[in-house]
Amino acid sequence: MKLLVCVKQVSESEAAITIDPASQWVTIGGTSAFRMNRFDECAVEAAVRIKEQFPGTCIHILSVGPERSETVIRRAIGMGADHGTHIVTPSGGFVDPSILAGWMATLREASGADLILCGAMSEDLMQGQVGPLLAECLSLPCATAVMHVKIMPTGEDVQVEREIEGGYREVVVLQLPALLTIQTGINQPRYPTLSNLLRANKLVLKTLHADGIDAPPPLQGVKQVTLPRKLREGVFLEGSTAQKAEQLITILSDRSFLA
């Protein structure tokens, strides 16, 4: 089988963020403040487990982002993937998900994959659009928020359990080729092995530049990016424990939180 896994580099949640007025987007300092999107880590782990189940399976990693995004491709190879492609974009500014999907769909690895795995969403934007849009570009069946993957013995279909509202799960069978977006909790992503990391560091990645790839017109745009406004001040309670408890009960009663 040929598997394609799409991964994204995101910032650490503790990273300092500033707003760039010129690009109307956020700026994050330091390369150490970035890592692989956790949803995508689960997608890579799911692909590696399929590879272990079906010897001869080839896993290709795809990432779209600035030059520093190369590190997440090499980490995925360290986890057990085989090859990688990096579509290099400028370092700043918002990129419409439909454009990202359009770039990905032009790759030979995407059109020739038996199964494409993406994270259910990215931790920074949390839109969950790139996977389904890529499936639409490639005219593939798609299942989102997948919690269990089972390749059928014939190798022609995949059975998945997907998370739906109310804590329920839906079981669907898709004919391959197909695209799945993977939810966190489906597995525990492994750490890269030393031997795979050494191989990943020596491997020459396929590199393309977004400027040279045709893409559909954007469907979204950013008008303004601002930091959240502070709307209310906190209240610090002083005194003994009993006095603080009495003050808290009074505040909650005044705001009708207590009967």
Name the descriptors.
nine-stranded mixed beta sheet; two-stranded antiparallel sheet; 259 residues; globular; 7 helices; 27% helix; alpha/beta; Rossmann fold
Q: Could you name the CATH topology?
A: Rossmann fold
Could you name the ranges where pLDDT drops below 50 across 5 or more consecutive residues?
A: none
For the biggest sheet, the summary is:
9 strands, mixed
Sheet/helix structural class? alpha/beta
Total domain units: 1
Q: Architecture, CATH level 2?
A: 3-Layer(aba) Sandwich
Number of helices: 7
β-strand amount: 25-35%
CATH class descriptor: Alpha Beta
Name given to the CATH homologous superfamily: HUPs
Distance between the termini: 63 Å
Give the helix proportion (percent range).
25-40%
Question: What would you call the quaternary organization?
Answer: single chain
Please provide the count of β strands. 13
- Net shape: globular
Mean pLDDT: 91
Major β-sheet strand ordering? 11-10-9-12-8-1-6-7-13
Q: Overview of this structure, please?
A:
This protein has 7 helices and 13 strands. It has helices at 38-53, 70-79, 97-105, 108-111, 130-138, 194-202, 241-254; strands at residues 2-7, 9-11, 17-20, 25-28, 34-36, 58-65, 83-88, 115-119, 142-151, 157-163, 169-175, 178-182, 206-209. The strands form 3 sheets. Strands 11-10-9-12-8-1-6-7-13 form a 9-stranded mixed beta sheet, sandwiched between helices. A two-stranded antiparallel ribbon has the order 2-5. A hairpin with a 5-residue loop joins strand 9 and strand 10 (157-163). The longest helix has 16 residues, at 38-53. The chain starts with a strand and ends in a 5-residue tail after the last helix.
